[in-house]
Each structure stands twice: as C-alpha cells, then as structure tokens.
Amino acid sequence: MTANSEEQPELLSPDPPVCRTALVSPDSPRQAYYIVSVIQIRDGYVIRKESGGNQAKPQIESYWRPGLKLALEKYNLLLGAKLRKQKGRTYKVALEKKNEKQKSSGKN
What we know:
Blueprint (H helix, E strand, L loop, with lengths): L18 E6 L8 E9 L2 E9 L6 E7 L2 H16 L8 E2 L4 H8 L3
Antiparallel strand pairs: 1-2, 1-5, 2-3, 3-4
C-alpha cells in the first residue's frame, strides 16, 4: 500500500444494504448477472459489485466512499454503465421473487 492511498475498512455490517439492484442478461447462455449494493459501515459506505453467471466463479469488487452522496454516485455509475450499453451483452433489472424478499426483510 502506498503512503498516499486510503486504507479500506473491513466490511463488518450485518445490516441489509442501503440499496441493491440486481441485473440479468436474459439472452446470455450462462445467465449472466450483475449485482450492485451500497452497504453502510462504521467509517462510511462500501459499494459492492458482483458479476458472474452459471458455472462461473463470481467476480467481486468493493469500493469505499466516506459519504452516502459519493457512494450513490459510484452506485449509479456502475449501474448506468451496464444499463446504457448499446452493443454486446445487455442487462435488465431483475425482479426479486416474493419469498426471497420476505426472507431478507425477516418476514415468514
């Protein structure tokens, strides 16, 4: 780590994300997906990007921002890059299944 780089804090938050969007590529043979979340931690916010598909190891990247405004800017930048694509693999917002949504909110 260089002297002028910021050290990223550990991701220790068990709380649900501030916001989360899952994208899927319906025409992808391996069911490609792309998930972006903003998670609040003690020292700021972590933007977590996960991408992958069936039979593939997911790629996960995390970005730290000190405030919510900066975190949401990065979140929107990551999503916009996938949703505005005119060529190559295209993505659409995935709708959560009702039972998965209830599990995440603690309802049975």
